[in-house]
């Protein structure tokens, strides 16, 4: 399993791709494999404020349901309506078409680089 | 903690890229790829399961049937040769110790198949309950691997590999024969709501049986299938799972399975007094099916409330998005006065009240 090196990660298995103060967020392939087939996703509303480390949505698979944790403080700018329509995209392309939302990041979140995240999931 | 035990097919599962889960002390394949695809394969073509974790207990002897009549809630002495029955073993207070399939292999030889998590309790209980009878109880779990082929294509797949006459093997029947040249017990039983077979063989032969079925089944669309889809398949079929719908605090009457209890037995049976009382008084709660109105699924342990009063009236025992129905389904115990089909309830899904309706079980029946 390869975690793209241009992304940053959280210990809760989200990835975050930062472009200036705007960031795109998704969950990692490791997370989707642990969850199994995702059948329902609940995302934060556009315009809502989220707080790093706190739950901002959920991912439901046939076997379980998991909280989606905000990777950083900030405001939701856009959600990926394609994954709301077809949550299987999150399984099939977690780092690409399966992205979840874009946010404006405030402050400097504490994130892992790909090597540190690789080491975390090796444990 | 001891490390989980691999089944005789572990290397094959690894080569297929399975994800594993620890289940009742065993390392079991939970899925090979997509559990939804595996679920759909069983509903439309066929799925291949490794169930070698299940417990097999042999009961033999002149009074084997009579001893089992005493030990279980059913009447194994009345099972025809080569036939099977679903049954349960209960405690003196009527609580369910396990649910079982009992096969009558010969006049004086039975195979009792118990859940992996319970075989270490069931086997000693059967030994104790058979005392005084001319019968021998033996935990033979280590001598049997179990492979299931389930789904509408399974009769054609198995027929191509066996010397037995598949069309004449009825539902809940078993016969000794060969599959892929290997000596097996071939049973037309399962836990998916589909037609299918369970194949008992020696652990050393399991890989040969698995590979022959894979080869014969692949052109039909057969896929290897893990425990994740086994759970959604049995839930859609309204089949109870021990530890969820069935446990020591539940009797067969709560579970809607009073029909498996037979009070007309020569020597009575363990739990008969308590179960007769429960039959008389009626169950304290009733097992029902739920369909959720929204997309969030009820899950085991979630509370159920009466929307009119807000009173808690029950608890979810199993729940999942249903691949076949495309909506969340659940089984739950609710108060008997609020258990009628069509009753609207609220399920507390992680703090939010979600609408659901009580429906008939099963959720799915094969055509």
UniProtKB/TrEMBL annotation, chain B:
Give the stretches traversing the membrane: none
Q: Kindly state which reaction or reactions the protein catalyses.
A: N(6)-[(R)-S(8)-aminomethyldihydrolipoyl]-L-lysyl-[protein] + (6S)-5,6,7,8-tetrahydrofolate = N(6)-[(R)-dihydrolipoyl]-L-lysyl-[protein] + (6R)-5,10-methylene-5,6,7,8-tetrahydrofolate + NH4(+)
Q: Which family does it belong to?
A: Belongs to the GcvT family.
Query: Which PANTHER family does the entry mention?
Result: AMINOMETHYLTRANSFERASE (PTHR43757), AMINOMETHYLTRANSFERASE, MITOCHONDRIAL (PTHR43757:SF2)
Description of how the protein assembles with itself and partners: The glycine cleavage system is composed of four proteins: P, T, L and H.
GO biological-process terms attached to the record: glycine decarboxylation via glycine cleavage system; methylation
Output the Gene3D superfamilies linked to this UniProt entry: Aminomethyltransferase beta-barrel domains (3.30.70.1400), Aminomethyltransferase fragment (4.10.1250.10), Probable tRNA modification gtpase trme, domain 1 (3.30.1360.120)
The record places domain Aminomethyltransferase C-terminal at 287-364
Name assigned to this protein: Aminomethyltransferase
Name the domain of life.
Bacteria
Keywords (alphabetical) are: Aminotransferase, Methyltransferase, Transferase
Record domain GCVT N-terminal: where: 9-265
EC number(s) stated in the UniProt entry for this protein: 2.1.2.10
Q: Name one GO cellular component term.
A: glycine cleavage complex
- Positions that bind substrate: 198
* Top enzyme class: transferase
* Pfam families xref list: GCV_T, GCV_T_C
Which GO terms of the molecular function aspect are on file?
aminomethyltransferase activity; methyltransferase activity; transaminase activity
């Amino acid at each position: 399993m390869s975690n793209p090196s241009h992304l940053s990660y959280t210990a809760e298995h989200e990835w975050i791709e930062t472009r200036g103060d705007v960031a795109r967020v998704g969950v990692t392939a490791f997370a989707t494999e642990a969850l199994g087939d995702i059948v329902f996703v609940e995302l934060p509303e556009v315009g809502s404020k989220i707080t790093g480390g706190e739950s901002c949505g959920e991912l439901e698979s046939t076997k379980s349901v998991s909280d989606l944790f905000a990777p950083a403080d900030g405001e939701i700018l856009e959600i990926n309506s394609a994954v709301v329509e077809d949550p299987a995209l999150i399984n099939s392309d977690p780092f690409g078409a399966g992205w979840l939302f874009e946010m404006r990041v405030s402050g400097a979140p504490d994130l892992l680089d790909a090597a540190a995240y690789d080491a975390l999931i090796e444990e | 903690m001891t490390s989980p035990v691999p089944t005789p097919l572990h290397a094959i599962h690894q080569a297929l890229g399975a994800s594993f889960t620890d289940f009742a002390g065993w390392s079991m394949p939970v899925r090979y790829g997509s559990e939804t695809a595996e679920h759909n394969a069983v509903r439309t073509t066929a799925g291949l399961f490794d169930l070698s974790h299940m417990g097999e207990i042999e009961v033999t002897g002149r009074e084997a049937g009579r001893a089992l009549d005493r030990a279980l809630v059913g009447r194994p002495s009345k099972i025809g040769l080569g036939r099977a029955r679903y049954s349960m073993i209960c405690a003196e207070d009527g609580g369910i110790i396990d649910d079982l399939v009992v096969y009558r292999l010969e006049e004086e030889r039975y195979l009792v198949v118990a859940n992996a998590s319970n075989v270490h309790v069931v086997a000693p209980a059967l030994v104790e309950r058979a005392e005084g009878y001319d019968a021998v109880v033996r935990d033979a779990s280590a001598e049997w691997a179990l492979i299931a082929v389930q789904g509408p294509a399974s009769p054609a797949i198995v027929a191509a590999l066996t010397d037995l006459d598949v069309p004449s093997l009825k539902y809940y029947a078993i016969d000794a024969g060969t599959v892929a040249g290997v000596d097996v017990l071939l049973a037309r039983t399962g836990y998916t709501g589909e037609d299918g077979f369970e194949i008992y063989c020696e652990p050393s032969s399991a890989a040969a049986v698995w590979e022959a079925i894979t080869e014969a089944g692949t052109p039909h669309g057969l896929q290897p299938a893990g425990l994740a889809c086994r759970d959604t398949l049995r839930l859609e079929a309204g089949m109870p799972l021990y530890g969820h719908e069935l446990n020591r605090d539940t009797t067969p009457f709560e579970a809607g399975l009073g029909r498996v209890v037979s009070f007309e037995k020569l020597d009575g049976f363990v739990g008969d007094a308590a179960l007769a009382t429960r039959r008389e008084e009626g169950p304290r709660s009733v097992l029902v099916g739920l369909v959720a109105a929204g997309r969030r699924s009820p899950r085991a342990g979630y509370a159920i409330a009466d929307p009119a009063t807000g009173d808690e009236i029950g608890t979810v025992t199993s729940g999942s998005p249903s691949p076949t129905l495309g909506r969340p389904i659940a089984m739950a115990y609710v108060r008997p006065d609020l258990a009628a089909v069509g009753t609207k309830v609220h399920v507390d899904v992680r703090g939010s009240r979600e609408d659901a309706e009580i429906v008939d079980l099963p959720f799915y029946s094969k055509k």
